[in-house]
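Deliverable D5.2: sample structural annotation.
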Amino acid sequence: MRISDLLFLCAAAALPLDAQVVAFSQGWPGVQVRFTSRLEPPPAKTTDPAILRELERELPGSAVALGERVHRIWQDAEQKVYGGYDLSVEKGGGAQTFQLRILPLSLAPKQISATETWTQHSLPKYPVIPEVRVGDTVAIDILANPTTGQKLVDYLTLERTAPAPPPRPHDFTLADAELSVNDPRLSVDGKPVDATAHFAGGVSGPTVWFYLRDHGRFMLSLFGKSDRRFREAGEVYDNILTFRDDAAEYRIECTSRIAPGPGHYNIYVFHNPAWWPMGEGANEPFILGSFPKAWLTGE
């Protein structure tokens, strides 16, 4: 759903319930956050399906690990509107509790789009949430439609960064095809990139990306047949991902498995050499982020 629809129209469409991303950042005390967005309340059963199809819009969200914070962002490319917030996680008052601090989004409009003018929407409030335990889920109101009473709500679930117990067996689906990039160490043509030597943070999602100064932004996915911007450029196995772009070879080594399984997988890459960060991240040599959308369907 477009942000403008949510704010000003009698919108009735629901965001996908499985549109999730996971992120943690440098300095967080052994925890990560799983983000899930929903439009509430859901459409009434009596809503005309034709109206639902007309009002339904996609609101792509993402998470960017940068410094001590994670930036949570939604974008409406059609309306050139974006919104979001910064998140920091700190030790709480108790031995097993944490404090979540919601802050105004510190990314500049040009970090959303370097070539176009975008409008930012702010949150209704920026709370500090104390005494949160691992496994707890808290809700943040992002946008509200005063006419309909509908709200875009972000649910934040606190998790340990340590590997979880293996899930019960199930058939492999597109939703399982996520990349997880944790504490990456990047090298270009065999030379380690200093900016990642002590990088602490990670993201996961169907599409992950990294920015490297003087190189631009690289978007990575396990699927690529239906999106011509992406090309097959390398492979991922266990905790190592490699790909080639022009004459350069890039290698990412992480502290945990990157791919969803033990085999070798093709990696598809979309390189935008003109992309660069602005605002808080303008001087950052390396930035890591993810999208919850499977940009590529593998048709």
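Annotation notes: The longest helix spans residues 49-55. Helices lie at 3-8, 49-55, 109-112.
The annotation will be released with the project's public dataset once the embargo ends.
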